[in-house]
Amino acid sequence: xxxxxxxxxxxxxxIYKMIYLLEAQEYSEMTISELFTKTISKFQNADExxxxxxxxxxxxxxxxxxxxxxxKYVKRN
Length: 77
Known about the structure:
Strand order of the largest sheet: 1-3-2
CATH class: Mainly Alpha
Helix content: 25-40%
Number of strands: 3
Shape: globular
Radius of gyration: 12 Å
Number of domains: 1
Distance between the termini: 32 Å
Number of helices: 3
CATH topology: Arc Repressor Mutant, subunit A
CATH architecture: Orthogonal Bundle
Structural class: alpha+beta
Strand content: 5-15%
């Protein structure tokens, strides 16, 4: 589910589905629920959405303000 293998196609993996969250960068800052609402059709369930957020956070692509539930995309030079 997280990464493709011979049983999970690339398009079904979390690595691929992270792209949908990265495409939402045009809104530089939004709440987790707003992002979920915008991308809900791309994920089979909320678990996939959370896994995608986790991986992006670990890769330092997003910052999450857990107190206010706000996601900020990290800007790179």
